[in-house]
């Protein structure tokens, strides 16, 4: 469930249940991500590091590094915040 208005340019907040399709496979993109687990358990792989996150755990990482997230049970729910690099200032 997106929590950020369409067209937001600096970051996107998503309340995810289960494994989001765009994170079920290795992915990378400019910016950073913050994953905060609310319920259940989530497996996170960032580069060669593997993490198992439980309720209350948070993981912040550079999203240019290949990463993947997966729910480990049927009631995993977490907040995923994806921050993109700041836009270049506009010249007048």
From TrEMBL:
Residues 27-72 form the Cupin type-2 domain. It holds the Pfam family Cupin_2. InterPro entries: Cupin_2 (IPR013096), RmlC-like_jellyroll (IPR014710), RmlC_Cupin_sf (IPR011051). Gene3D superfamilies: Jelly Rolls. This is Cupin domain-containing protein. It comes from Kitasatospora paranensis.
């Amino acid at each position: 469930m997106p929590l950020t208005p369409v067209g937001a340019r600096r970051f996107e907040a998503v309340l995810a249940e289960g494994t989001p399709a765009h994170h079920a496979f290795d992915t990378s993109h400019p910016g950073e991500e913050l994953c905060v687990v609310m319920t259940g358990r989530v497996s996170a792989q960032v580069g060669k590091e593997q993490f198992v996150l439980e309720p209350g755990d948070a993981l912040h990482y550079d999203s240019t590094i290949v990463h993947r997230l997966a729910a480990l049970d049927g009631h995993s729910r977490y907040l995923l915040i994806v921050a993109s690099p700041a836009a270049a200032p506009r010249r007048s």
